[in-house]
């Protein structure tokens, strides 16, 4: 009997990895959790993963942790928000400058395959138009911060594709679900009468439940569509007005008012390529199925 594949997950203390690592172990993979702070890697350790210290800016620690690995998955981020401790600037820096160190370490350790997390709003549609993996540019970015995030993500993707590895890029839609903090924050603000629509609420947002993002990643390992870039999203993008009105109604609050910060470009993306390539479909087809309280 052949040995199971060894999968390394960088950023294994993050919310995406906390959903992914248990699924990898359950699927029979030998799983390594690469983290900056091993002392707080309780979820990975409890699931039976091999926890190792590594930092995306420390090539030596990465090379040591990646020895003998078949597939390396980079989920490292440094974001602020409900579940993050970083800043947008730190996250852009990580994507631009940490990712090359990561891929150099993968090459030095003899890793052949890699998965790189990215973001689906690099494919903004603008208004109510649909977009897919080929739709880059042409739609307005709401502010400099969002534009910087998109540029950093695209630079990160370019580094992945030029790394010499067989690299799969997974562009996740906006995460929600347990541990992400987004839906908890939306419900809390709605209950307090403080939920505001981004702009006038007419822009589209494509969502993905964090459990579906993890499931798609496991499916990618099983099917491995080499050198692909795939959008991972639910089936039914929604306007911010529809989404936030649903949340407000569910807690008995008044409909949200316009005037909040836009934050994201309008992105209404298709998941058809991921469905075809991975044999995957979202368990939570839209926000109504996933936003359960």
Give an overview in words:
- The protein has helices at 15-26, 42-47, 59-66, 88-109, 144-161, 182-191, 210-223, 240-250, 272-278, 287-290; strands at residues 6-10, 30-35, 50-53, 71-74, 113-119, 166-172, 174-176, 196-198, 204-205, 207-209, 229-232, 238-239, 257-260.
- By secondary structure, the protein is of the alpha/beta class.
- It has a single domain, classed as Rossmann fold (3-Layer(aba) Sandwich), CATH 3.40.50.720.
- The chain has a seven-stranded parallel sheet, with helices on both faces. The protein has a two-stranded parallel sheet with strand order 7-10. Strands 8-13 form a two-stranded parallel ribbon.
- The longest helix is centred in the middle third of the chain and has 22 residues, at 88-109.
